[in-house]
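It is worth pausing here to work through a concrete case rather than discussing structure prediction in the abstract. The textbook approach is simple: state the sequence, then state the predicted structure, then interpret. We follow exactly that order.
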Amino acid sequence: QMPGTARHDREMAIQAKRNLSKTTDPVERLRLQCLARGSAGIKGLGRVFRIMDDDNSRTLDFKEFVKGLNDYAMMIDKEEAQEIFQIFDKDGSGTIDFDEFLVTLRPPMSNARKEIIMQAFRKLDKTGDGIITIEDLRGVYNAKHHPKYQNGDWTEDQVFRAFLDNFDSPYDKDGKVTTEEFMNYYAGVSASIDTDVYFIIMMKNAWKL
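Step two, the predicted structure:
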């Protein structure tokens, strides 16, 4: 399992709450409210939108957008929601693409961080097809050290599946982790780590890069 993640998550949540009182940028405020719930906070908002997207259009109109924010208990008034919606509705169609929305909401990362994340991804993606699956992990990750494997609760495949589920989109756990999902996960972790140097050291240690 990813070492230190829980600690980083707590630090990030505390930091996000602190920064919330300082920022006036509406997108940043929404981002910080999500991050205040930990690195899966942005994915969680995505899940709420996914549930509301009845027609599977992967788009939301303003009413759905506001309802999603309310369902997820985001503290945002109507004006601010309008402002955010307009930023994302670039073509003025009255709908926003929520995949694009979630990617933009993701905390920005330096190229150095993206590069080390991709290195870890490539190491795990044994077959090199841009998706990490149980097959890939068999060659890289030893399930036999996992306590649930040792006490007979889980098979090797169940250990791998649980590992993949960490990175997978919570509303769409399919046992496959895309580059996008891996990046989203680490964007959350990255938000709690101030310096590139420390982030890179952490990734190198975690993945033996």
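Step three, interpretation. The radius of gyration is 18 Å. The first helix runs from residue 5 to 20.
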